[in-house]
Design goal:
Mean pLDDT: 74
Number of domains: 1
Distance between the termini: 55 Å
Strand content: under 5%
Keywords: Membrane, Transmembrane, Transmembrane helix, Transport
GO molecular function: 3'-phosphoadenosine 5'-phosphosulfate transmembrane transporter activity
Helix content: over 70%
Order of helices and strands: HEEHHEEHHHHHHHHHHHHH
Number of helices: 16
Strand order of the largest sheet: 1-2
Low-confidence stretches: 9-23, 28-47
Membrane topology: Multi-pass membrane protein
Protein name: Adenosine 3'-phospho 5'-phosphosulfate transporter 2
Main location: membrane
Number of strands: 4
Largest sheet: 2 strands, antiparallel
Structural class: mainly alpha
Length: about 375
């Protein structure tokens, strides 16, 4: 009888079955719950995937995902920065920064619509009110950033963007209730001091330095800080896809800019100028928008997988390399103060990266070393006594 009971319990414990066995003495019921992948339909299952340019990053490990995203950000945004400065080097184009943003948003909307048609999940998951806020912030950060190039040197604009970590931390505290340690605060202070020093150097050596550009890029920086936290919170809360985020935020932003340019009579002069230089304006703007779209796709993947602060750290490192390439490819005044202030900003970036990996790179304290030596002496004394 005992052997029979053991055999029955063994049969009932097999996974993937639902059996009802009757014997003369007992009833045996075995119920197995199907796995999550079996219960979810393929449509819902694809929501958890992070797809960038048709590539499903969810199939890779975390380090591989990070390497792919960082490589994409660096490659596409370095080309993006070069083309942006190239467009503004066209004589007479500097007053039309908002029109360039309008064209850029138009291309982004088309690219997002195409990408959305290529994926299975086409539903809009994030509420429309949230997209209206994100679109407004996106217009602010990109429009003001493009417009500031009419007043500032490109490296100065980039060094301001490198310090986006400061308002991102402030936005993280007020929007998501995050708390940062002393290392993060030190990184923010280093970036602030480096930014001030760089701006002072630019005002000394650049004859066309204008405080209006500083105000514009500062406002763009604040909007950029808020948008990273809002995007992270919206994508995690509603599980929205990258292509959905790009399509709706930039298409709504396109309407915002078009309405603004129409009301301020800034649309007609820009169209007239660009029609006279179609290759240097629309041609470069297309490549500029294409590389920017690819780059923003990898940035959104970084935000969704690793968070806004790490994404900002990666894009900040990319901007540092963009500054070097700007001085190599485009002639502009140079002073060693650029180097020292840039190194101070890099130190802030390093401190920020270190703060995110303190558990891996934790340095031993003097008290810890002393306790360890005392424990080793005690163990040696005990072994000798034994």
């Amino acid at each position: 009888e005992k052997q029979t009971e053991d055999n029955n319990s063994t049969e009932c414990s097999e996974p993937g079955t639902m059996d009802l066995k009757f014997t003369s003495s007992r009833k045996y019921i075995s119920i197995s719950v199907p796995s999550k992948s079996q219960t979810m339909s393929p449509h819902i299952k694809s929501v958890d995937d992070v797809v960038v340019l048709g590539m499903n990053l969810s199939k890779f490990s975390k380090p591989t995902q990070f390497f792919i995203c960082v490589s994409g950000v660096f490659m596409f945004y370095l080309i993006y920065g070069y083309l942006q400065e190239l467009i503004f080097s066209v004589e007479g184009f500097k007053p039309f920064g908002w029109y360039l943003t309008l064209v850029q948003f138009g291309f982004y909307s088309i690219f997002g619509l195409i990408e959305l048609q290529l994926i299975q999940d086409k539903r809009r998951r994030i509420p429309g009110k949230t997209y209206m806020i994100i679109a407004f912030l996106t217009v602010g950060t990109m429009g003001l950033s493009n417009t500031s190039l009419g007043y500032l040197n490109y490296p100065t604009q980039v060094i301001f963007k490198c310090c986006k970590l400061i308002p991102v931390m402030i936005g993280g505290v007020f929007i998501q209730g995050k708390r940062y340690n002393i290392v993060d605060v030190s990184a923010a202070l280093c970036m602030s001091l480096g930014l001030i020093w760089f701006t002072l150097a630019d005002s000394t050596v650049a004859p066309n330095f204008n405080l209006t550009g500083v105000v514009l890029i500062s406002l763009a920086l604040c909007a950029d800080a808020v948008i990273g936290n809002v995007q992270e919170k919206a994508m995690k809360l509603h599980n929205g896809s990258n292509s959905e985020m790009v399509l709706y935020s930039y298409s709504i932003g396109f309407v915002y800019i078009l309405f603004g340019l129409t009301c301020t009579s800034g649309l007609s002069p820009a169209v007239t100028f660009c029609s006279k230089h179609p290759v240097q304006t629309y041609g470069y703007a297309f490549l500029f928008s294409l590389t920017g779209y690819f780059g923003i796709s990898f940035v959104l993947a970084l935000i969704k997988i690793f968070g806004a602060l790490l994404a900002v750290t990666v894009t900040t490192g990319r901007k540092a390399m963009t500054i070097v390439l700007s001085f190599l490819f485009f002639a502009k005044p140079f002073t060693l103060q650029y180097v020292w202030s840039g190194l101070l900003v890099v130190l802030g970036i390093f401190l920020n990266v270190y703060s995110k990996n303190m558990d891996k790179f934790k340095l031993p304290s003097l008290l810890g070393l002393w306790k360890k030596s005392v424990e080793e002496r005690k163990s040696r004394t005990l072994s000798q006594t034994v």
